[in-house]
Amino acid sequence: MAESKPRKAAAPKQAAKQSAVKPKQPEPHLAMVRRARKINRILAETYPYAHPELDFENPFQLLIATVLSAQTTDLRVNQTTPALFAKYPTPEDLAAANPEGVEEILRPCGFFRAKTRSVIGLSKALTEDFGGEVPGKLEDLVKLPGVGRKTAFVVLGNAFGRPGITVDTHFQRLVRRWKWTDETDPDKIEAVVGALFPKSDWTDLSHHVIWHGRRICHARKPACGACPIAPLCPAYGEGETDPEKAKKLLKYEKGGYPGQRLNPPQAYLDAGGKPAPPLGAG
């Protein structure tokens, strides 16, 4: 009986495939800068009238409204501040206010006791240290009770025209999704993202990113299929990619829908005064 020749051990196909897969190379910094700036240009075209969504008439009102916006919506703040500013129109008025009266007005905003302490405290500081005027410098603003860098940059950028990056929860979420940074500390995010753009772009960049986070790139289920920057997004596919299903996820917000070119507030109403659908929604 003839002896059978021993068979050669076959190399595992899976191991061969794994060895052929090259590790993904990190994106070169220059390429990332170009991609980030292109994203901002597209968002600027998508939201040409992006602006602060808090209602205000002067730096003091914007400062108070921004402090009140913590842990609540801008809509809720805008529903609350008219009564507050009607009763306490100046820092001097609010500094001398009875806390219980202020608490009653701010109750709908949540955390109303802490917010009452902050707005009365910062009003006293404005009255005693700055002659009743909101200072236009970062180092002065952050000394006020309840005012951090995020609030300070909102005020500087939108009341004084001084560039700043507003790192709120939307901004943090989106810049990490886009792989602009892996940082989680707001101050570090501010520094890293600020280095990607000219300083003159910082305020508008903040508005573009925040508007996009509120309208399309949601935390739990982003509308990837309706996103204008989908080809540039490393996280594409985390949300709904079907265009028709994605359109249903778009959030209707004050000041217009994605892609609209009309001035607010008419931008979000049709000719009959009713909410209009997003452009391209059929």
Automatic annotation (TrEMBL):
This is Endonuclease III. GO terms for biological process: base-excision repair, AP site formation. Belongs to the Nth/MutY family. Its EC number is 4.2.99.18. It is an enzyme of class 4 (lyase). [4Fe-4S] cluster binds at residues 217, 224, 227, 233. PROSITE patterns: ENDONUCLEASE_III_1, ENDONUCLEASE_III_2. Its cofactor is [4Fe-4S] cluster. It comes from the Bacteria. Residues 9-23 have a biased composition (Low complexity). Pfam families: EndIII_4Fe-2S, HHH, HhH-GPD. The keyword Zinc does not apply. InterPro entries: DNA_glycosylase, Endonuclease-III-like_CS2, Endonuclease3_FeS-loop_motif, Endouclease-III_FeS-bd_BS, HhH-GPD_domain, HhH_base_excis_C, HhH_motif, Nth. Residues 1-28, 255-282 are annotated as: Disordered. The gene is nth. Keywords: 4Fe-4S, DNA damage, DNA repair, DNA-binding, Endonuclease, Glycosidase, Hydrolase, Iron, Iron-sulfur, Lyase, Metal-binding, Nuclease. It catalyses: 2'-deoxyribonucleotide-(2'-deoxyribose 5'-phosphate)-2'-deoxyribonucleotide-DNA = a 3'-end 2'-deoxyribonucleotide-(2,3-dehydro-2,3-deoxyribose 5'-phosphate)-DNA + a 5'-end 5'-phospho-2'-deoxyribonucleoside-DNA + H(+). Binds 1 [4Fe-4S] cluster. DNA repair enzyme that has both DNA N-glycosylase activity and AP-lyase activity. The DNA N-glycosylase activity releases various damaged pyrimidines from DNA by cleaving the N-glycosidic bond, leaving an AP (apurinic/apyrimidinic) site. The AP-lyase activity cleaves the phosphodiester bond 3' to the AP site by a beta-elimination, leaving a 3'-terminal unsaturated sugar and a product with a terminal 5'-phosphate. GO terms for molecular function: 4 iron, 4 sulfur cluster binding; class I DNA-(apurinic or apyrimidinic site) endonuclease activity; DNA binding; DNA N-glycosylase activity; metal ion binding. Residues 68-215 form the HhH-GPD domain.
